[in-house]
Amino acid sequence: MKKILRFLKPYKTLTIAGAAAKLTEAILELFLPFLMSKVIDNGVATGNKSYILLMGGLMLATTILGISFALACQYSASLVSQGVGTDIRNSLFEHISSFSNAEIDNFGTASLINRITSDVNQVQLAVAMLIRLVIRAPFLCIGGLVMAFILDTKLSIILLIVLPVFVFILVYIMKKNVPIYRIVQKKLDQIGLVIRENLSGVRVIRAFAKSDYEKDKFAARNREYADNAMRVGKLSALLNPLTNLSLNFSIGAIIWFGGVRVNAGSMTTGEVIAFVGYVTQILAALIVISNLVVIYTKAFASAGRVVEIFETKASIENPRNLGHIPYGKDLKENAIVTSINTGSFNHSSVTKTINNNYMVEFKNVSMSYEPGRNYDVEDISFQLKRGETVGIIGGTGSGKSTIINLIPRFYDVTSGSVLIDGIDVREYDLMSLRRKIGVVPQKSVLFSGTIADNIRWGKTDATEEEIQKAAEIAQAAEFISRMPEGYHTRIQRGGVNVSGGQRQRLTIARALVRRPEILILDDSFNALDFATDAALRKGLKQDTKDMTTFLVTQRASTIRGADKIIVLNDGAIAGIGKHEELINTCDVYREICESQELQNTAL
């Protein structure tokens, strides 16, 4: 919980001021039953109207002053709770942004969204209640109890009987509710996941006439959530009836035994009424506490889920004591600077780096998405010179995307090493490394904004000429020119107003505009027709001669002219070489070509 409480530090003054205002309001409230007893005993009993008016005015002034302090507290609580909630969300977002793909896969997108919204809202509410009620309610209980004992010790025994029962009820319900509410939040995560999948895949669902199936699936998840929420609700619903029962029992007992003591001359009528007032305050405060139990039951469960994110360390970390290398510096210089900052610098390593002929090198690389399980790719080794183009081909699940995801460190190797210019990628500053790599992922993702805005994601200060040049190489300029507003045409969320092939070409242009030293195309031609595919490959060959390019594909025709082809099978390399060599030496590659009717063309 320390990870949550630290967010209160910037608002320490406001928190104290708000709590002090609420405490003052509670003190003033404790005076009201005492003043009422004086009105009855010294005013009403004697018929002294001036005394009644005087004390009535004093009670009115006390009430107005109390309201002023209560408003001040409400204002402070709003500022603090909203500020803390905003800071937690910002910090959570920043921390989640540091996660590698492994951590994001582990939590799931729907759960992360739910934690940064719903769970933080519960914590935010708890902070507001901390200032508004957590201090006031216990003080009213303790203060009212003290005042009741001052008025009459024997009559206060009633309170000593009722309070332990009340506390037992609170503790029992809280103990039962906390674990159930954790389940409720998990069920809410599942609802979020179903909604997200349903909305993002609505076209597929309709195409396969699965709307009824998805409705039933959502209804089942919703029912599970509702059942658990009802379990929490049923337990929480017991609080108010039980507390009201305690209140009414106490008041009835006090009036009964108070009347007996008035007849005996041990108490005055005003003191009995004041005693009832204090008991009402005490038990009303306890009712507030019972509601706070519900709020804090949810808040503790939600805080635990938020803290779980903060306590999750990113498996991929930037080298320590390394500032970001300014954009435009050479990767080799970046790597050397990194080595110096991480303490791994020596003259021999620099000499090796300067003389290294390989832009990208894999050395006995093995990687598993889940530690302790079999490797997803195993013992991968190859070298690639600057400006070369390598094609990576293999069946589904053979490890093609896994290999290229290791270059920009989306995942880290389990064993072995990936080197750029002779330096392990784990020694590079992440931001500088990724600025030098242009990645076109398997799934084409566009963002809301214009076409030009989307291409500028690759380089924020790109000029119109650079944007147009990148679009021309990516074979996107033609369809962009046909749009009414050209490069200023707005892309709707996710790029739903352009075709799959157009999305792919725009994402390729986005990667090319930064003129990266390493270009990774992860199955980025699968939505293109063969003519566009050929034109795009020709454009890349002519205009990206200095780029080291990775072409990941299942089309043998796409990589036929590559300088080197890596054939993968079940996470291992089945062959490396040019197209002509592999046709004769690699059975896996030959089978792929035969299935695509390319062997005769090659021969």
Low-confidence stretches: 321-355
How many structural domains in the coordinates? 2
> What percent of the residues sit in helical stretches (DSSP H or I)?
55-70%
Strand content: 5-15%
**What name goes with the CATH superfamily of the largest domain?**
ABC transporter type 1, transmembrane domain
User: What is the arithmetic mean of pLDDT?
Assistant: 80
Radius of gyration: 35 Å
| Class derived from helix and strand content | alpha/beta
CATH fold topology of the largest domain: ABC transporter transmembrane region fold
Shape: elongated
The biggest beta sheet, please?
6 strands, mixed
Walk across the major sheet and give the strand order. Answer: 6-9-10-3-11-12
Distance between the termini: 69 Å
Per CATH, the class of the largest domain reads Mainly Alpha
Query: Which architecture of the largest domain per CATH?
Result: Up-down Bundle
According to DSSP, the number of beta strands is 12
Please report the number of helical segments.
24
Description:
This protein is 64% helix and 11% strand. It has helices at residues 2-5, 12-44, 49-97, 101-107, 109-134, 136-151, 157-200, 202-207, 211-237, 239-263, 269-311, 331-341, 347-355, 400-405, 430-435, 451-455, 464-473, 477-481, 500-512, 530-543, 556-559, 579-585, 587-595, 599-602, and strands spanning 358-367, 377-385, 389-394, 415-420, 423-424, 437-440, 449-450, 490-491, 518-522, 548-553, 564-569, 572-577. The protein is α/β, with parallel strands linked by helices and 603 residues long. Residues 321-355 have low confidence and may be disordered. It is built from 24 helices and 12 strands. The radius of gyration is 35 Å and the shape is elongated. The chain has 2 domains: 2-311, ABC transporter transmembrane region fold, CATH 1.20.1560; 331-436 and 516-602, 3-Layer(aba) Sandwich (Rossmann fold), CATH 3.40.50. Strands 6-9-10-3-11-12 form a 6-stranded mixed sheet.
